[in-house]
Amino acid sequence: MLSGRRLDLLDPSPLDIEIEDIAHGLARVARWNGQTLGPHAFSVAQHSVIVEEIAAASAPGLAARWRLAALLHDAAEYVIGDMISPFKSALGYDYKRVEARLEEAIHIRFGLPPRLPQEIKTLIKASDHASAHFEAVQLAGFTAEEAQRLFGPKPAGVDLVLTPLPADAAQARYLQRYETLANALGSASNDDAFDTE
Hints:
Strand content: under 5%
Oligomer: single chain
């Protein structure tokens, strides 16, 4: 990693994971295999910020730790890249196991439980699909009908206009969201740490 850390992909240590490396990597990984409109790729970093925003809008009062989990939902891709779901399925169990171990190490590094509660996983997945809906229609050439069929409807009350950012800007925005959430976590009491309301 640019930080100087050496990360063992088969046995990742939380001690070797740095948010700067995640932000740098994700800002340079293209969603949709780069097949999007505009002069810049739509990065996983930018997508992750949007997923966190959608999760917060979908669950008002969502605790900062779960908002952080939403921001980090694709963090493993900073080293393994963004693969489309059918290809992940084709690679099978070994790929999923590597990805899961990396996700667990990332969660531990940032003070989250290794495995997220099902309610939070469901919220993040729905927010991920909502972001994909907007991305598909606005950036990847899908019709609204195709996006609805593949990703479900847009969430009520959420209306986004997406503009792919240069890598440096996407990286800075990701780090800014992380800092905001980390500061909120630092000031939150242990009593509300697992609140999902």
